[in-house]
Amino acid sequence: MAAPIIRVDNITKRYGMLTVLDGLSMEVMPGEKLALIGPSGSGKTTILRILMTLETISGGHIEVDGQQLYHMPRNGGLIDADERHLQKMREKIGMVFQHFNLFPHKCVLDNVTLAPMLTQGVAKAAAQKRAMELLDMVGLADKAGNMPAQLSGGQKQRVAIARALALSPRIMLFDEVTSALDPELVEEVLNVMRKLAAETDMTMLLVTHEMGFAHDFADRVLFFDRGKIVEEGRPDEIFSHPKQERTQTFLRKIIAAGHRV
Question: Does the predicted model carry a pTM greater than 0.85?
Answer without folding.
Answer: yes
